[in-house]
Amino acid sequence: MTSWKTAFAFASLFPATLALQVCTEIQQAVSAASAVYYPCGNLTLEFEACGTENQRPLSAASGVCSPCSGNYDANNAHWVASSTQDAACTVEPATAADVSAIIKLLGKTRTPFAVKSGGHATNPGYSSTPGVQISLTRFNAIKYDKKKETVVLGAGLIWDNVYAELEPLGVVAPGGRVPGVGVAGFTLGGGYNWISNGVGLTIDIVLEYQLVTPKGDIESVTAESNPDLFFALSGAGNNFGIVTQFTFQAFPLGQVWGGLLIHEAADIAEFNTAFANFAVKTTDPKASIVSGFALDDSGNPIAANIMFYDGPEPPAGVFDEFLAIKNISSDISARTLTSLVASAPQTLPPGTRGYFNTMSFFEYTPAILDALLNETKFWGPRVAEVEAGALAGYHMEPFLSTLYTHNSSDTAWPFLRSESQRFVPLQMQFTWNSPKHDTIMREFMEQSAAHLTHVANEDGQPIQQLPLYPNYGLFSIPPERIYGTNLPRLRAIKAKVDPQDVMGLAGGWKLW
Ligand SMILES: Cc1cc2nc3c(=O)[nH]c(=O)nc-3n(C[C@H](O)[C@H](O)[C@H](O)COP(=O)(O)OP(=O)(O)OC[C@H]3O[C@@H](n4cnc5c(N)ncnc54)[C@H](O)[C@@H]3O)c2cc1C
Which of 105, 111, 344, 497 is least crowded, fewest Cβ atoms below 10 Å from its Cβ? Predict the structure, then answer.
């Protein structure tokens, strides 16, 4: 069995009664600042035992009643329903010491668990579990230090809240570009942000991780205090423990400019020309775009383009070609970052399932853009044939060749950081509703990536050597394609930091 199949099988086979027993032990081990929540459904007998509808016994034996509440559902919830599972219990630790107590118990009992920040993982089981769901929502501190020009952020925050709090101070720690994305999962995978062209990935601006190691030690990890672990945390997800807090470098940010433009089918050729020109000609590090193709309700392709400029007005020439194209919807203005992020809402109807898949290209050439449009026209009807309402979209993100040079140190991801070997990510997104279509949608996404790889090779782009971005990656991608030449070093660090592979009890990208 491939490693992702093994991981899914392990978690689902763990006996629910044992997981519940561990929940009881966790409840007894953590401080009063933290809380454990249980499902509320089908508890008639237990309600009687506890005497109130919002209580259930910790176990048949204990006689101790504990609250079941909406927190249980919220702690399990994800952006896509396919990433949500019903845990035996959910726990909201409030202190690093409680996280330490929890991880020690989970390791000792070999109980499957999950760690969730913003819940935007699009791979099933990456931040959900039938075992113990750890929600970091109580780690919500935002502390700006003007003198040091740093921002401390709790690992349970979403970026929208960070921007809203920092905006009046005229600073930013750059993270998610659309609403709802979590600080921790985003950062631990890399983090393409709106000012990446100027400052790098979000991992490039981390100064300190507060980490609870798989052995339960609470450590401040900096490039100086523990260079190996700092390297490993910078891009290798949850393999090395649970981060409770990050310290980021802060950057000045005032009003920004931009928003969303949508173009209909007849104007997409012109849009592609403008996009290809922007991708090769723009050198201004304050400018950035994320663009995508999808089909509208009538099955016709549309191009959506979110533009960003770090300043209230972009210099002439930067976005003019895009602005000159006829559009069917335009929401462009000078605005706050919060307003710009909110201009691209990403809320899905309840129950929507979905995966991301990713590819990296050396460059978004006209041939690649044509191929992406063709894929949209090909897969859009195919997924709708499988299930009415299912959607297929492709999102292109051109960045400057200097993006990966903002960090002079190595990071777990990406394993290539040379200016001469520029690569740009693609995010493929398919959504549907029925669990019975999970497998075929995954296969479609894999087939699409295989076809695009062929097109890229024909276009003179041997993209198989490029790093794939874990935060957009489909779970069937092997770790070699993500961590590449960094894998031996990461595995050696893992053997020291997590010899019992406690973090292997949680889903997420693994190193083997
Ligand atoms: C709508 C949408 C928009 C996006 N926009 C962007 C974007 O602009 N740029 C970009 O780079 N990416 C983007 N992404 C991808 C995003 O970075 C990943 O989905 C990321 O994993 C989300 O982080 P999270 O905290 O919300 O997710 P979660 O599901 O909470 O966590 C993701 C992974 O991180 C692990 N994890 C979470 N918290 C911790 C912790 N404290 N310690 C250890 N491990 C932890 C989890 O166990 C899980 O494996 C987007 C995704 C979506 C769905």
Answer: 344
**Quick one: pLDDT band at residue 232, thresholds 50, 70, 90?**
very high
Strand order across the 89-92 sheet: 35-37, 89-92, 132-135, 113-116
Q: Which pLDDT does position 182 carry in this prediction?
A: 98
Q: Which CATH architecture has domain 142-253?
A: 2-Layer Sandwich (3.30)
Please report, rounded to a whole number, the percentage of residues in the chain having pLDDT higher than 70: 92
Fold topology of 3-135: 3.30.43
Domain 350-477, CATH = 3.30.70
Is 176 close to ligand 1, i.e. is its CB under 6 Å away?
A: yes
Q: Ligand 1 atom 1: the closest Cα is on which residue?
A: 346
- Report the separation in Å between the CA atom of 237 and the middle of ligand 1, taken as the mean of its atom positions: 9
Helix axes 96-109, 16-29, angle to 10 degrees: 150
CB-based contacts of 472: which residues, under 8 Å, 6+ apart? 356, 357, 358, 425, 426, 427, 428
Architecture of domain 255-335: 2-Layer Sandwich (3.30)
The pLDDT of residue 422 = 87
Residue to mutate (ligand 1; options 120, 158, 159, 246; most atoms within 8 A of CB)? 120
User: What span, in angstroms and rounded, lies between the C-alpha atoms of 88 and 134?
Assistant: 11
- H-run or E-run covering 492: helix 487-497
Is the pLDDT confidence value at 48 over 70? no
Structural tokens at position 287: 């400018």
Q: Is 192 a pocket residue for ligand 1 (Cβ < 6 Å)? A: yes
120 lines ligand 1 (CB under 6 A): yes
Q: Which atom of ligand 1 is nearest to the CA of 202?
A: 11
Residue appearing with tokens 């050729």 = 269
Alpha carbon distance 316, 399 (integer Å): 19
